[in-house]
Amino acid sequence: MSEIFLLGIRHHGPGSAYSVGQALAEIQPDILLIEGPAEAESLLALAGHAAMTPPVALLIYAEDNLADAAFFPFAQFSPEWQALQYGLQQQIPIRLMDLPHHHHIALQRKALAEASAAAESMRTDTEAPPLPPYLQEHGSTSDPLALLAEAAGFADGERWWERLVEQRREGLPVFAAIAEAMTAVRAAVEAERPIPYREALREAWMRQTLRQAQDSGFERIAVICGAWHVPALQRLEATPTDAAGDLALLKGLPKCKTVVTWTPWSYGRLAAAGGYRAGVSSPGWYDFLWQSHHRPRNHSTYVGAGWLARVAHLLRHEGHDVATANVIEAVRLAEALTALRGRSLPTLDELNEAALATLCFGDDAQLRLIEERLIVGERLGSVPPETPLTPLQSDLARQQRTLRLKAEAEERVLELDLRQSTGLERSKLLHRLHLLTIPWGKLAPAGRGKGTFREVWHLQWQPEFAVRLIEMSIWGSTVIEATTGYLHEQLRQSSNLAQIAAMIDQALLADLPAVVDFAVQRLQAEAAVAGDVTTLMTALPTLARVLRYGNVRATDVVLLEQILDGFVTRIAIGLPAACYSLDDDAAEAMLTKVEACHDALMLLQEDSYVTPWWEAIARLADQVGLHGLLAGKCCRLLLNAERLSAEAAANRFHFALSTAGQPEAAAAWLRGMLRGSGLLLVYDERIWSVVDQWLVGLSEEHFLNVLPLVRRTFADFAFGERRMMGEKVKTGPQPQARTAQHQERLFDPEAAVAALPVVLQMLGLHAPEAG
In the chain, which end has fewer C-beta atoms inside a 10 angstrom radius, N or C? Predict the structure, then answer.
């Protein structure tokens, strides 16, 4: 008769992992049964590879729909991982005993289809149809740790488990206590409601796997499973009736084809806050506890002092002043709190309170930093090269090694010099991945300066990118092939000129010439039928930037010149009509487009573009009924380009702000004229006088109506400009500017001739000889 040892654990518990190791050394089992998806058994041998570094996860996904994917993570302190390492080292059989995931995917698809059909048939009913049994599993089972913690007077199930299990090093006896506690909890839960259908399927599969191990003649069987399942496995009986019941429950389960592989995981995703249902809230802390379990001497002292030393090191690295004396006081405070609360070892609560009081000086922001970097942690695992990968994953891994770009969970800043081949190739790879919707790197706003050879990226790898890479494998077997194929499809489906223009810009940065050629063709086709001027104006700045700067890769962008020429011509013709009869919101939106197009065309400095644009602006400035915001801006553009004299601008200003018009329209004209810079108001006395007279002449009612608009106009000015205006108001009105005749009378030709030799000597020149 086989002897069965049920080791009920908490997933990702360091104390459980240590006790599992001790128990297995004592049991000396002939076979290990570990909770996990059964179809992953073929990849368990890779867990013993020297290059396999936790945290890692088993990734299982459906061949026909990559969205049906699931991760099964393991950390160094996961009991299942330690059991797996023990079995590989002892070379004993290892079996995964949970319901295969291909059954779960098929059952869930079937249940979702049934729920959808039921909802469709009951659309007229007021009550929603009940969920199919397989979908009722989620949220239906009470957390056994929370129930036990509540019974013990704890508010947090995780802290209760940490104190009574994770900090202990007792080996096999602790599992007998866990089994007894879980049996009581489960009896209470099952008395209120039956175990959900999905849970019943899983436990029936576990029992069947256990029976198969018995039938195979193994004498000492060790089972490592969640503590919740221990009572269900204790009910295993040798009678055919019970076995027949499990067989009947499992008979005829649907399934689908799945693929299994290993993938790197991170502590951030292992945390419960990351969305993983079986996660823990403090994986970094649990990693530290796991390491502390392997210190045979001074274990209790090391937990407090070792952790707070790490905290001090982190704070110093971040530029905070932490003295050694502060660390000593923090350790003493943590030990005092531990003794006061009757505990043998300090928990995270005592350590956080001590760190907050003595190392962070009450600053919660520093405590949040400790939580992010240490309590949760930023570790990212790795898998060996022999791990089954898609061709796209393999190509990315090869490029990462070649370019020395290591995937890391911790965010880091990478500065690239695009004049160097390595920096250029790194930039291409990051841009291509971004186009594949894999944002491993995020380009800093100032990282791509106009015409510069420098890029600044913020890199942070997420485990979910592995699934995205698998999804993108349908577009190609290499990064460049997949990006090209994916963008071709996006361009075929897009009719948005701005989006297509943006793809051209991004494809140039990613060095995808085939995409650029196809995008230009799509742009030509869509531009030929585009009749909306605002659509053309949205796309124009991107095209102009590409033509003006191209990129540092010296890509030929001449093909875009004809398209841009057509854009400018059509915009110049249609702009006045597009600006007719606009409300305030529409005028604001149009002004933004006008400014963007103006800035872009001024950068090009090509007469074929600039000339029709200025003609359009001039017509727009003279247009009757034009919204004041646009009229004022057009006047300012013409004045800045010296296409409108200062006297003519002052006359327009005076006319726009005359008392004959509506004050709200005048305020809009003022905002458009002064938008972007208030220096015109500071240095031009005539315009200053016009604005001053207009404001003084407003009635109290009109002044209150236009005040918000005027305040918004002046709020956009730089601080120095506003200060100069304030000083100008204090000093009062300035004398009128001198006329040209007055300036001429002030000039003394004889004095100028007398000073000429001195000026020439200062410049190092010789005075002309008297002739």
Answer: C
Other Cβ atoms within 10 Å of 332 Cβ, number: 13
How much of the chain exceeds pLDDT 70, in percent? Answer: 86
For 567, phi then psi, to 5°, come to -60, -50
d(CA 156, CA 160): 6
Per-residue pLDDT, 273: 47
Strands 220-226 and 31-37: parallel
Please report the DSSP string for 544-561 in residue order.
Answer: HHHHHH--TT----THHH
Burial annotation 684-716 (CB, 10 A radius, 16+ → b, else e): bebbbbbbeebbeebeeebeeebeebbeebeee
Query: Kind and range of the H or E element at 715?
Result: helix 700-715
Give the contacts of 82 (CB within 8 A, at least 6 positions apart): 17, 18, 20, 21
The gap from C-alpha 478 to its chain's centroid, in whole angstroms, comes to 24
CA distance 771 to 766: 14
Task: For residue 200, give both structure tokens.
Answer: 């019943």
User: Amino acid identity of 377?
Assistant: G
Q: What are phi and psi of 544, to 5 degrees?
A: -65, -40
Angle between helical axes of 663-674 and 628-640 (0-180°, round to 10): 30
Strands 412-417 and 454-459, by their bridges, are antiparallel
- Asked whether the CA dihedral 184, 189, 192, 195 is positive or negative, the reply is negative
443 phi and psi angles, rounded to 5 deg: -75, 125
Please, is 85 exposed, middle or buried when counting C-beta atoms within 10 Å of its C-beta (0-12, 13-18, 19+)?
A: middle
pLDDT in tens, 694-752: 677 777 777 777 777 777 777 777 777 778 877 777 776 555 444 444 445 556 778 77
Domain boundaries, the chain: 3-55+73-100+130-245, 295-376, 391-475
Tell me which residue of 645, 571, 643, 642 sits closest to 613, measured CA to CA: 571
Q: Find the helix or strand (DSSP H, E) in which 225 lies.
A: strand 220-226
What is the Cβ-side half-sphere exposure of residue 319, based on CA atoms within 13 angstroms?
Answer: 0
* Nearest one of 465, 455, 456 to 407, comparing CA atoms: 465
Q: Which residues pair with 58 in a beta bridge?
A: 72, 262
Residue 441 neighbours by CB under 8 Å, 6+ apart: 414, 430, 433, 434, 457, 458, 459
Which tokens in the block code for residue 661?
């018009």
Instruction: Provide the residue count of the chain.
Output: 771
Contacts 24+ apart (CB under 8 A), 295-301: 299/169, 299/345, 300/344, 300/345
Give me the DSSP letters along 382-417. B--TTS---HHHHHHHHHHHHTT----SS-EEEEEE
Q: From CA 484, how far away is CA 488, in angstroms rounded? A: 6
Q: Is the pLDDT of residue 276 over 70?
A: no
Q: Looking at this protein, which amino acid is placed at residue 648? A: A
The phi and psi torsions of 216 (rounded to 5 degrees) equal -80, -5
Give the Cα-Cα-Cα angle 93, 99, 104 (nearest 5 degrees): 145
| One-character DSSP codes across 39-92 | GGGGGGGGGGSTT-BSSEEEEEEETTEEEEEEEEEE-TT-HHHHHHHHHHHHT-
Instruction: Please write down the HEC assignment for all residues of 423-434.
Output: HHHHHHHHHHHH
In percent, the amount of the chain with pLDDT more than 90 equals: 27
What is the pairing mode between strands 258-264 and 412-417? Answer: unpaired
Q: How far apart are CA 267 and CA 54, in angstroms?
A: 10
Quote the CA–CA distance of 434 and 444 in Å, as a whole number: 13
Rounded distance, CA 465 to CA 316, Å? 33
Better pLDDT: 392 or 145: 392
